[in-house]
Amino acid sequence: MRDTAAGANPVVTPAVSERSRMGAGRLFALSAYWLATNLHWGALLLIILPSQVREIAPAHKAEVQGLIVGTGAVVALIVPLVVGALSDRCRSRWGRRRPYMVVGVAVNLAGLAILFSAGGLGSIPLYILGYVVVQLGNNTATGAYSGMIPDLVRRDQRGEASGWMAAMTQTGTILGALLGGFLMGAGQVAASYVAIAGALVLFVSVTALGTREEALREAPAPVDWRGFVAGFWIDPRRYPDFWWVWITRALVTMGMWTVQPFIQYYLADVIGVASPERTAATLMAIILIGATVTGLLGGRLSDRIGRKRVVYTANVIIAAASVGFVFSGSLAVTLVVGMIYGLGYGAYYSVDWALGCDVLPSQENAAREMGVWHISMVLPQSLAAPVGALLLASFGHYAVPGVDGGPVYHYTRAGYTALFSVAAGFLLLGAILLRRVRGVR
Fold first, then answer.
1. Residues 397, 410 contacting (CB under 8 angstroms)
2. Closest CA to 362 of 236, 246, 234
């Protein structure tokens, strides 16, 4: 098979076109890890992290939140590139991807233990360290896992597989947000960490035992490390579609991650809810229920009418809903806007993986190239969270007396207006630039 990446050593893998179509059971096993990792992030990023940061640094919660998320995203930027490329060459009898996934989950669990300890101690440096270890482990597993769909799924079934990935994204994040919101709202911090750790172990086992990876047929040549680094370069002149998809996905991610880390604070500061953890869980559940409705449908529909039409519609819906949050003055309206946001969110992610797979330059180095594609999701995270925090902080904050007499700090409505408006702009620009992709409908 051909190898189009500069400086790469050839590897020989089974042809995807020779594989049979996957049934529902195999698609579930393939996507089970994705359910677990989204449950993990749904609980950690949406509920646990902002709740603990608010306790540790109440006067500067957004700035500290942005620092933690941005620092971790730098790790998430680098690790999938290295792990994806190394797993392309792995000769384990377990296959190329699964050994890295198991090791990655083990490191992830160690990071969760550090985070739990840091929260109890109220230590921001230790909390950052724990989050970095979590990102290291999770992205080791995910960097290898990202090669599984192009490895195992036929091209004419990738829209359906992408729909499964979208459904697992929504379902996992709903479960994580609800679980985290209920337990953290009840003060059960330890139980929150134990629950997400248990889910990771359970579902990575389902994927590891339920997929049929094949080992490399021939041994790769010794690694040329200079060529290894050079192999991450994908020439935009030869593969313009890949880079336009990369850019548009980065813009969509910027739009979502400019606001996502601060949803819990928005609910407390603008809507005035008494229990932001539980309300954030409810809002995210409603968003993701809407997303589940369009998740599986969007993937199959994109196989028929094309990916781009689905993305155009989805981005416009998400952008409109982002502006809608600015004008919401009550929790009821916020929940309705959240449902609309979710419908667009699910439609977008139903074709996200399929669109990425469709524009890969080669099949032989799928994980390495998916690692480059994965940067379009993690690089914006390293920028969006700090940018969002600076936007909020630049409009100032104010303090009101709390129930115990101490001050409770809030960011201004003007800050949140700027936050959601900037997010909507990123989303619309992502839709506009997708028109530059020529080789995908």
1. yes
2. 234
Rounded Cα gap, residues 146 and 149, in angstroms: 7
Closest CA to 147 of 347, 377, 362, 297: 362
Is the pLDDT assigned to residue 167 strictly greater than 90?
Answer: no
pLDDT tens readout for residues 385-430: 888 998 998 998 777 776 666 777 888 999 999 999 999 999 988 8
Two tokens, residue 342 = 């979710």
- What sign does the dihedral 175-179-280-34 (CA atoms) show? negative
Contact 99, 92 (CB under 8 A): yes
In a 13 Å sphere around the CA of 94, the CA atoms on its Cβ side amount to 14
Torsion of CA 374, 377, 383, 385, to 10 degrees: -140
Degrees (nearest 5) of the Cα angle 271, 273, 276?
Answer: 110
Percent composition of the chain: helix, strand, coil (DSSP 3-state, to 5): 75, 0, 20
Q: Which residues contact 121 (CB under 8 A, 6 or more apart)?
A: none
Confidence band of 219 (pLDDT split at 50, 70, 90): low
| CB distance 279 to 295 below 8 Å | no
Strand partners, 411: 397
Angle at 232 between CA 231 and CA 236, to 5 degrees: 100
CA distances, 2 to each of 6, 9, 32, 95, 321 (Å): 12, 11, 31, 20, 44
pLDDT at 189: 93
The DSSP annotation for 299-320 comes to HHHHHHH-HHHHHHHHHHHHHH
d(CA 123, CA 3): 48
Among residues 145, 151, 164, the alpha carbon closest in space to that of 99 is found at: 145
**Residues 172-191: tens digit of each pLDDT:** 888 998 999 989 988 899 99
Dihedrals φ, ψ of 410, to 5°? Answer: -130, 140
In 212-357, where do the E strands start and end? none
Q: Tell me the C-alpha distance between 184 and 280, whole Å.
A: 11
